[in-house]
Amino acid sequence: MAPKYRLIYFNLRARAEPTRLLFAAAGLQYEDVRIRRDTEWPALKPRLAGKTNLEQAQVDMLVDGMGDLRGKQAAIRKASEDKKDQCKEELAAFAPNFLRRYEELSGPHAGHLVGDSLTWADLEFYDVMAKVLMYLPGILDNLPKLAKVMDTVPANKGVADWLAKRPETPH
Q1: CA–CA separation, 115 vs 106, rounded Å?
Q2: Alpha-carbon distance 112 to 162, whole Å?
Q3: DSSP states of 45-76
Q4: How far is CA 132 from its chain centroid?
Q5: Mean pLDDT of all residues in the chain?
Q6: Using the 8-state DSSP alphabet, how is residue 4 labeled?
Q7: How far apart are CA 61 and CA 49, in angstroms?
Q8: In angstroms, rounded to a whole number, what is the distance separating the alpha carbons of residues 112 and 119?
Q9: Which residues contact 79 (CB under 8 A, 6 or more apart)?
């Protein structure tokens, strides 16, 4: 049985249009659900994006920046055997300053990068750092705010349940 796809986005082309084009080019059927930004979006808006506009901007900034660290970590996995050590050295050189900046940008509430509750920035950080820590195990030892995020995320019941049942994969 073919999967059923459902695309939910505003009544705009914008960021959803490449996905619509992909479905069209592949000949895949999907449900194109268009919502109104002013009336329907507030009820659907993810609750993990931050509580205020400022928090949402901070979350977006931290998540976008996390791509740099994710890229350095992923380069190790993707590298040929003769390049892996070089990639590990690049991660080891890059990560300390990157993480120090994130420690400084983290808010005053222990266990969260932004605000006083779980955001998708915390989830993204946890996911990337779980992989980075395989190569740099003590990197968070002097970064207490970031280390606390690594404790807080898996303590969330939904996250803990997922981690307990997720399939074992190489990455």
Answers
A1: 9
A2: 19
A3: S-TTS-SSHHHHHHHHHHHHHHHHHHHHHHHH
A4: 14
A5: 94
A6: P
A7: 11
A8: 8
A9: 86, 87
Q: How confident is the model at residue 44 (pLDDT cuts 50, 70, 90)?
A: confident
Tokens (6 digits) for 43: 């009820």
How far is residue 126's CA from residue 23's CA, in Å, rounded to a whole number? 32
pLDDT at 125 over 80: yes
**What is the tens place of the pLDDT at every residue in 88-110?**
999 999 999 999 999 999 989 88
Identity of residue 36: R
Q: What is the mean pLDDT of residues 118-147?
A: 97
Compute CA 75 distance to the chain's CA centroid, rounded to the nearest angstrom.
17
Sign of the alpha-carbon torsion through 92, 69, 113, 134: negative
| Distance, CA of 30 to chain centre | 26
Is 17 exposed, middle or buried, given 0-12, 13-18 or 19+ CB atoms closer than 10 A?
A: exposed
Say if CB 97 and CB 78 are below 8 A apart: no
Amino acid identity, position 121: A
Distance in angstroms (rounded) separating the CA atoms of residues 97 and 92: 10
Share of the chain above pLDDT 90, in %: 84
Look up residue 74 and give its two tokens. 């992923």
